[in-house]
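Ticket #4471: structure output looks truncated?

Reporter: J.K.
Steps to reproduce: submitted the chain below (265 residues) through the standard prediction queue, then opened the result file.
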Amino acid sequence: MKASNAPYDAQEFTGKRILVTGGSKGIGEAIVTRLRLGGGTVLVTARNVPKGVDTGHFIQTDGTTRAGADHIIKTTFDRLGGLDILINSLGGSSAPGGGVLALTDGVWQQEFELNLFSAVRLDRGFLPAMLKQRSGVIIHVSSIQRTLPLFEATLAYAAAKAALTNYSKGLSKEVAPHGIRVNSVAPGFTETKAAEGLIQRLAKEAGTDTSAARQSLMDSLGGIPLGRPSRPDEVAELVAFLVSDRASSITGSEYVIDGGNIPTI
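Returned output as attached by the reporter:
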């Protein structure tokens, strides 16, 4: 899908020290690109280093583990001396299909480590410095599945994202008096490269084209009134606004970006 050519201020994030987890692909990668276009100094974490990446701005580690979180925190302080903006974009699901009885203790633990505990550990690691400087912004990337769970394969993921949204709200109330803003973003179906691959596979399996496969996938999610999935750059633009000074009075909120997929208020 064609990306937008939205205008941006190339100096908006100049001087800002930023960390984006899960920033090597999908929504995370789009957020990294957008904030760098705004002049920010952005460190990226992911399990694998993409080709052609400046390793000086990349932290390779497994962010779902305690050791990985400690490595991210230490490396960030060593390279940047502190942090102004933390974006917890790491997340996803690798749970098997088959409904709730297919989800073992190990699967549940894995989904919560990836989608909740990874963010909690980093918040806890960076908050003391943010509290000392009396400024900072934290964003949690949740999902519309926190209120629209799909039981067949992603129930544990949905439950973890619901917990992340709840935690984000509670954290915001505690740290707002100290100059720190906390918000969350809940994307719906977003056509990342991985989603494009899924659409192509579904089209091949059904003997149809990608437009029909995309529509079938949207229908399976209950329909998207806007008529298309969101783009990663659109989610990134929302995040860029929320971490900017333009949103200086916004905290404790969650913003849904799903093309109208959720049918209720």
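Triage note (M.O.): checked the attachment and the full token line is present. Strands lie at 17-21, 41-46, 58-60, 85-88, 136-141, 180-187, 254-257.
Status: closed, working as intended.
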